[in-house]
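User: Show me sequence and structure for the first protein, then do the same for the second.

Assistant: Starting with the first protein.
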Amino acid sequence: LRVISLGRKNYLFFGSDSGGDRAALMYTLIGSCKLNGGAPEAYLRHVLAIIADHPINKIKELLPWNLTIPAE
């Protein structure tokens, strides 16, 4: 919660409600990754690298609690 309160001034520049929704989504993904013992940066880097070729009907496999991040 400290991170959210520190960034409050920056949130004024999201430009729209959908920008705030996207920020909330990112906070949720990063928080879920931390709760499941993962490194958020490595998780996001890995998912963004493979998501284009991943079938849409198997998207749940990419959630932080279902994915094993390869060692870097």
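Switching to the second protein now.
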Amino acid sequence: MSEFAIRPEAIQDAVVAALGDKVRRIDVALGEVTLHVAPADYLAAMATLRDAPGCRFDQLIDLCGLDYSTYRDSVWEGARFCVVSHLLSVELNQRLRVKVFCADDELPVVDSVNDLWASANWFEREAFDLYGIVFEGHSDLRRILTDYGFVGHPFRKDFPVSGHVEMRYDAERQRVVYEPVSIEPRDITPRIIREDNYGGLH
């Protein structure tokens, strides 16, 4: 750890002091601080983290969606969709991870932080595109990586590997056309050949 870096426990204390009962959970692991907030408190908490004297997280350096439905290949008991943000304070030389779980698995919604940090714009659009998470208050929430006619959200754990539709250029119509997927999904089990003396090992 750099001699100028703030101890994680000091960051934890500053965040708890600034947010009070908006802290649902806060952990220190591997030298990093992770804060959990409720969806109803998310926007207000993020504004406080940006402005409070002990926090001063002036930069949002990353934001992404997560699908916990098959977390660690087991049954997940909590909410399915989560938004994770990584904040940086240049002034105080400290970092913070913030997690907020969407209240509704069928229609995952959280507030947009685009008005707090302009860098959230494309990050939130990506999470919307890939996971279907809706960012309430985002001024231009539309797909950013997939085509506008794309069906579904490809980073969801239940999205089929082959997708739902395929597109190709039709020379007769002189345009791109969408059609049902022509690839038939199949399970392939690799055949393993074991030799008694493979590689000279006994």
